[in-house]
Design goal:
With about 200 residues, this protein is α+β, with helices and mostly antiparallel strands. It has a single domain, classed as DNA methylase specificity domains (Adenine-n6-DNA-methyltransferase TaqI, Chain A, domain 2, Alpha-Beta Complex). The chain contains four helices and eight strands; from the N terminus they run ββββββααββαα. It has a four-stranded antiparallel beta sheet with strand order 1-6-4-5. A two-stranded antiparallel sheet has the order 2-3. The chain has a two-stranded antiparallel ribbon with strand order 7-8. Strand 7 and strand 8 form a beta hairpin. Helix 1 crosses helix 4.
């Protein structure tokens, strides 16, 4: 079945139309997704989220909701799964939001599927701009989805979510280790310099 038969596929907001030019025009303040905030492993890096000052309250369809799949329209076409922590973020127009009702297609299963090499290779065949590898939102809508039973979807989804969680924690640990060893090496170097000055 095509994805748009199983879920709604909507382009994000053209932010320039709703963005306040000055603070006095601001009616509502949001946090906004951007390409840098989407880690290639499929999670949000909140250090890159930006503030979005809007001239009006935005429609719910342009804000992240639990169970949403938000997917890049540019390479590497990474999909992220929205949970309660990331509710209410502005989805800009260089993303699509995919919302399934969960009765036939589980969002967690779709999250795994959209990040597979097979699906990404299929999307690359629909590139509309070779400069940045942009694809049209219809490329997602037209994707053929293998619909497994809910039990089978759950099995794949649970393992994928566990793997993503472990990889995320390992990445965080690696970052902390890099900082630790850098600081330790800098400390040793400073002590060596100090000792050399004292010996002279």
């Amino acid at each position: 079945m095509r994805l748009d038969e199983l879920a709604t596929v909507k382009t994000g907001l053209v932010t320039a139309r709703k963005q306040a030019k000055k603070s006095s025009d601001t009616i509502a303040k949001y946090r906004q997704l951007n390409l840098r905030a989407i880690n290639a492993r499929g999670y949000i890096d909140d250090t890159y989220l930006e503030d979005f000052l809007a001239t009006e309250r935005l429609k719910a369809e342009y804000l992240t909701q639990p169970g949403d799949l938000v997917v890049r329209l540019t390479t590497p076409y990474t999909a992220i799964l929205i949970d309660d922590k990331w509710t209410g973020l502005v989805i800009p127009s260089h993303f699509v939001a995919i919302r399934s009702n969960g009765k036939i297609l589980l969002p967690e299963y779709l999250y795994w599927l959209l990040n597979t090499d097979k699906v990404k290779a299929e999307l690359q065949q629909n590139i509309s701009s070779t400069m940045i590898g942009t694809i049209k939102p219809m490329s997602y809508a037209n994707l053929n989805i293998e619909v497994l039973s809910i039990a089978e979807q759950k099995k794949i989804a649970e393992l994928n979510l566990l793997a993503r969680k472990e990889l995320y924690l390992l990445e965080q640990l690696m970052g902390q280790k890099e900082i630790y060893y850098k600081e330790a090496l800098n400390k040793i170097q400073k002590e060596m310099r100090r000792k050399k000055r004292e010996d002279n």
